Automatic annotation (TrEMBL):
<protein>
    <recommendedName>
        <fullName>DUF2993 domain-containing protein</fullName>
    </recommendedName>
</protein>
<dbReference type="Pfam" id="PF11209">
    <property type="entry name" value="LmeA"/>
</dbReference>
<keyword id="KW-0472">Membrane</keyword>
<keyword id="KW-0812">Transmembrane</keyword>
<keyword id="KW-1133">Transmembrane helix</keyword>
<feature type="region of interest" description="Disordered">
    <location>
        <begin position="1"/>
        <end position="24"/>
    </location>
</feature>
<feature type="transmembrane region" description="Helical">
    <location>
        <begin position="32"/>
        <end position="55"/>
    </location>
</feature>
<dbReference type="InterPro" id="IPR021373">
    <property type="entry name" value="DUF2993"/>
</dbReference>
């Protein structure tokens, strides 16, 4: 009867021995594990500190830009360069991105006002103060190269044209297999852009362009209207955006059906009057820091005006 007891004791001893070995092995590695944890913790603290300083500096730059007369809302600012502390201490960042939204533009004060989004991308940029931790309204940034853009969305372009339900679409290039798919990204073009909107059938009442309350797309409008999809060219003339309508869009993408407006000879004058409603030379739109526009395209449902410059000094209170 004693043999089974001996065997059980022997089995517990054999199974227990490896457990003791594992504990001894963990004990030998404990200092290494502690060092690794401490290094990771220190790296995490350093990263968070660097990020916090970057956020504070970017907020300081945004508030300095807010002193510019036409900037009504705090811009979104990104200063490029990691680690931030080194770049700020040296007074040079590898680049920057500044986006100001809701910037007022002239041309439709009586129709609710028009606004644009303005974005500036720079190459290497250096504050004139020699450091990059804090910015003031009187500071200047020196950039190696600058790309500035003004983005007009469909509602604001519609207010400028006096067509309040206007919507911009960018058809895919004809003959391109699979065009318009996710792999193409945002489609852009300057010829054959489509403007969709509702206009009154002529003669239009006197008094200038319609307001939102008197727009042909308003529910209270009692006159005759037509909704059309119009093909336009986008161009720049003396720094001004020019929209030139030249025909009706017939597809293949979604569009408004204007019936026989462009095929019935009896409606030729009406067609020209409708196209004229989509043709305009907009008032000059000041680019960020007085840059000159050099190109214009559609970008999805927006209109994008861009300008480029090499070396440029950017005064923070003159955006």
């Amino acid at each position: 009867m004693s043999d089974p007891a001996v065997n059980k004791a022997h089995t517990r001893g054999r199974t227990g021995a490896p457990t003791s070995g594992k504990r001894r092995h963990f004990g030998h590695n404990r200092p290494l594990i502690v060092i690794i944890v401490m290094v990771l913790a220190a790296a995490g603290v350093a990263y968070l500190t660097d990020a916090a300083l970057a956020v504070r500096a970017e907020r300081s730059l945004a508030r300095a830009l807010l002193t510019s007369p036409r900037v009504d809302y705090e811009p979104q600012v990104t200063l490029k360069g990691f680690p931030f502390i080194n770049h700020a201490r040296d007074g040079e960042f590898s680049g920057s991105i500044i986006t100001a939204r809701g910037v007022p533009i002239e041309g439709c004060e009586s129709r609710g006002g028009c606004f644009a989004e303005m974005t500036v991308l720079t190459g290497a940029v250096r504050p004139d103060t020699g450091g990059g931790f804090r910015f003031g309204s009187g500071d200047t940034l020196t950039a190696d190269d600058v790309t500035a853009s003004v983005r007009l969305d469909s509602p604001n372009l519609g207010r400028l044209l006096g067509i309040t339900d206007l919507y911009v679409t960018t058809p895919a290039e004809p003959g391109k297999a699979g065009a318009g798919g996710p792999g193409d990204g945002v489609l852009t073009r300057s010829h054959g852009v489509v403007l969709n909107g509702t206009v009154a059938v002529p003669p239009t009442p006197p008094g200038g362009l319609p307001t939102p309350a008197t727009s042909p797309s308003a529910s209270g409008f009692t006159g005759e209207t037509v909704r059309v999809s119009v093909l336009v060219d986008l161009s720049l003339s003396d720094g001004r955006l020019r929209v030139s309508a030249y025909g009706l869009y017939k597809g293949p993408e979604e569009h408004a059906d204007a019936g026989d407006l462009d095929t019935n000879p009896a409606k030729a004058d009406l067609l020209q009057a409708v196209l004229k409603r989509f043709t305009i030379a907009l008032p000059p739109i000041p680019m960020p820091w007085g840059m000159s526009p050099s190109s214009v395209t559609s970008a999805g449902s927006d209109i994008l005006i861009e300008g480029r410059s090499d070396h440029r000094d950017l005064s923070l209170n003159s955006f």
